[in-house]
Amino acid sequence: MYVTIKDIAEKLGLSKSTVSRALSGDYLNVSQETVDRVVEAAARMGYKRNELAVNLRKRKSMAVGILVPELQTAFYSRFIAEAQSLLQKNGYRTIIALSNEDTTWEKSSFGLLSDYRVDGILISVCHNRANIEDYSDLNGKQIPLVFFDRTIEDLPCSSVRSDEQKAVLSLMDHLIARGRRRIVHMAGPDYIRNASDRYVAYQSVLTQHGLAFDPELVVKAGLYRPDGFREISSLLRSGLFFDAVVCFNEMQALGCIEALQAAGIRVPEDVSVASMYGTEVSSLVHPSITSIEKSVLRMAEEAVRLILRQIANPMAPPSEVVIPSDVVIRESS
Amino acid sequence: MYVTIKDIAEKLGLSKSTVSRALSGDYLNVSQETVDRVVEAAARMGYKRNELAVNLRKRKSMAVGILVPELQTAFYSRFIAEAQSLLQKNGYRTIIALSNEDTTWEKSSFGLLSDYRVDGILISVCHNRANIEDYSDLNGKQIPLVFFDRTIEDLPCSSVRSDEQKAVLSLMDHLIARGRRRIVHMAGPDYIRNASDRYVAYQSVLTQHGLAFDPELVVKAGLYRPDGFREISSLLRSGLFFDAVVCFNEMQALGCIEALQAAGIRVPEDVSVASMYGTEVSSLVHPSITSIEKSVLRMAEEAVRLILRQIANPMAPPSEVVIPSDVVIRESS
DNA sequence: TATTTTCCCGGAAACGATTCCGGGAACGGT
DNA sequence: ACCGTTCCCGGAATCGTTTCCGGGAAAATA
User: Fold this and answer.
1) Residue B141: its pLDDT value, please?
2) Which of A3, A94, A297, B194 lies 20 to 30 A from A80 at CA?
3) Cβ proximity of A325 and A291 under 8 Å
């Protein structure tokens, strides 16, 4: 079915070794004439290298995997595009795999990547994860890992994330400057590093500004639109006073705004809403949502740099890179 | 580094063959006791099958590739999720690859997939494609192909697409029922089957309803937000009268609406806007956009069904599946 | 001319699995 | 006691490639 190196060798009366050398550009050990003949024959016969065999033999693949939880969020699709193009410049190909925010899927996708013996993996962990044991398993496979965006604590791996602390700081500074005093913090799952970082920052900003910390203003919510809607609705029913909300993400913020508007509360006149990390959707909806912009490009650059370093020297100590991000003020605040 | 079948064999004093059989569940040719020993040892030693070797030996990979132009559009990310889960149910894994709407990328991604000897590929072609020759090349590789959503004409491959004709029909029926008479048709690139289908349908609907066909109402536009904005702006400047616009996609529609509103024209009171194929963004923006909903699930189902059939029997004649889609009426019309 | 170096190339062993083939042991039937 | 089955298992080939090793011929040096 496929034409192999052996076919070429037989047709040309050469050995497999020579053909392989000619094709791989080992110009020291094969005459120019032979190279020409082989290359010509290969092209004519429609030869295509079997990467499976190459990888098996070389025990590596010149490919890195990118494992993301989902693709709906523009951040991930952009990251993939950027990282892919950077990796390609360095001679690496990419295999994209999904975890669908699910532990089992994640494991199986990781399996796919390691089965194909990728030389490294860029991974953003899925949300509904119970423990980090599996990740140390993954890490135990000796395959270079770089966590990005959603990172895991206490794992001796390199990671790239955005500066959650500073992001929260800027966002809250902005709100406080607008005269807001009672700011609701919608927390995310706390095994995600980002989430805990934000929570810490939230508290420290309050004390910095001499504002009281009210635990009732901290609500744990799911990550999607209905979650935001539900939490804010129940908060409103409870009669608690608040004048601003900082959400975990855009969709949550959307739900918040809908809940507020449904209750006849004006945004941003009565209550300001802001989102950590928004995509273009933030600017499309009405009112458009004040949010933090992650620098996809820089994160991709760092992640690629780190994985390449790790591949080149697996013993290199892991490093954590933190990327600053900007707050974009829009109508909702 | 990795523990192999040979390691297990040596540790247990068995041959590689026996270990392989025990592990692959060939219970006829190996005693239960040996199976148990092998399985136990494999688990204890952390054995992981090298799929590369298996695929090399079996000459197939039990993997199918999904090649999409981009991931920003929710349609593709959803399609991938659906198709992936269906394929998994059938024992296939998936490799996702991107073309980034670029011919060169597409070729290289296709190369990646065929290098890895995937058993089949689901592909949605990229837009800025000059000719279809490359696709016949791809087809010549003897690897089963199924085109989905964006299909190519005149290629002996199976394909799955939505019913553009009927979609245009429903959308225009709706607009005409609303009293619209001069409907602008924003055309897409005509080498894409979807686009030409729509154009034909546009014309036939007009004659069906006894409306005049005005070539000036047909504008060729790019596929993104600024394109919609630009085209409608220039149309407005030209002074041509129209009371409705049917866009190629959601982003284009968004641009249209912005252009109209910028000119002080009300949507939908003065001009209705509708989009072929919208995602949730259509429902989030204000005014929300009337659009056609493609049935991602059904398309994924059909695509997977076709590729599996083609893999099982490469000689099976190609078939074209057309999937109906629904019009969702929102504020913009 | 004899010896060393250089230049190409072939043979063979890997890489890690599957699978065909055949053979020894145990077992039942005559 | 002999033969035919059945049950397990090992040996070896195979998938397509790379790469180490070594060898023969030509070229360069002594």
Assistant:
1) 62
2) B194
3) no
Q: Using alpha carbons, list the distances in angstroms from residue B308 to B57, B66, B87.
A: 21, 13, 9
Would the Cβ of A20 be found within 7 angstroms of any atom in strand D? yes
Interval B161-201: pLDDT, tens: 999 888 888 999 999 998 999 999 998 776 667 777 888 88
| Nearest chain A Cα distance for residue B70, angstroms | 8
The pLDDT score that the predictor gives to residue A141 is: 62
Q: Can you list the alpha helix ranges (DSSP code H) found in chain A?
A: 5-12, 16-23, 32-45, 51-58, 74-89, 103-115, 133-140, 164-177, 193-208, 225-237, 250-262, 281-284, 296-312
> Between A56, A77, A95, which is nearest B52 by CB?
A56
Contacts of B99 in chain A (CB under 8 A): none
What CATH topology corresponds to A60-161+296-323?
Answer: Rossmann fold (3.40.50)
Contact B100 A81 (CB under 8 A): yes
> For residues A233 and B225, what is the distance between their CA atoms, to the nearest angstrom?
34
Best of B55, B59, B96 to disrupt the A interface by mutation (most A CBs within 10 Å)? B96
Closest by Cβ to B51, choosing from A116, A281, A285: A116
A 39-68: CB within 7 Å of strand C: 53, 56-57, 59
pLDDT confidence of residue B86: 93
- The Cα-based distances of A132 to A127, A310, B34, B45, B158 in angstroms read 11, 21, 35, 22, 44
Quick check: helix, strand or coil at residue A305?
Answer: helix
- In this chain, the answer to whether the domains covering A60-161+296-323 and A164-293 adopt an identical fold is yes
Question: Do A79 and A296 meet the contact criterion of CB atoms below 8 Å apart?
Answer: yes
On average, the pLDDT of chain B sits at 87
CA A71/CA A91 separation, integer angstroms: 25
Domain B164-293: which topology?
Rossmann fold (3.40.50)
**What's the token pair of residue B92?**
């296939």
Q: What residue spans define the domains of chain B?
A: 5-49, 60-161+296-323, 164-293
d(CA B27, CA B38): 12
Among the partner residues B48, B71, B281, nearest to A80 by beta-carbon distance: B71
Q: How far in angstroms lies nucleotide D18's C1' from the CA of residue B138?
A: 28
The Cα of B214 is separated from the nearest Cα of chain A by a number of Å equal to 33
C-beta atoms surrounding B217 within 10 Å: 21
Identify, with chain letter, the residue nearest to nucleotide C7 (CA–C1').
Answer: A29
B31 CB contact with strand D at below 7 Å: yes
Residue B257: name the closest of B280, B286, B277 by CA. B286
